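FORM 7B: Structural annotation worksheet

SECTION A. Query
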Amino acid sequence: MNPRIALLLLCASLLSATQALAKSKTILPDGCGDDSVEFDAKMEKNNPALAVPAEGKALIVFVETIPDTGLYARTTTRFGVDGTWVGATKGDSYFTVTVSPGEHDFCASMQSAPSGMKKTFTQATTLTVEAGKVYYIEAAVDVIGSQKGGIASFDFAQLSEKDGKYRVKAWKFATSKPKN
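SECTION B. Predicted structure
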């Protein structure tokens, strides 16, 4: 066999193997869920009163904050706790979950980004929570570059109680359900 053809076949097979590996399961941080799970999320017209944590539990308020433009209101962000997706937000919105006291892995992953934008990395953090307390965790969307060809990313961080209460008052409550 001609050495050039053999080299070409070897390169083609390596390229195919690399592409197959790239399409295989995405590795996500511990706090996330299965990457194939996606949510339908919407903002409700009326915000319910923020619940008091259930007895012996902590309340987690997940918040998404977006730039001040309608284009990014279509952004959907999934949030996970200890390896399971627990819900999603869409635009400037929030939702809540209760967890047991102790250390938890939290995750946020941009499920969708505006047309023409590239979504970026998933973010994760670990937080030790106490029973009876409320914790606010925000995924703040940021855009680098232009609407066409830019990158949509976010910062994932715990908010102060004051900032968290403001978001709950000013943002919309989000409801979500996994897509079939």
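SECTION C. Observations
The chain has one domain: 25-178. The first strand starts at residue 39 and ends at 43.

SECTION D. Sign-off
Analyst initials: ____
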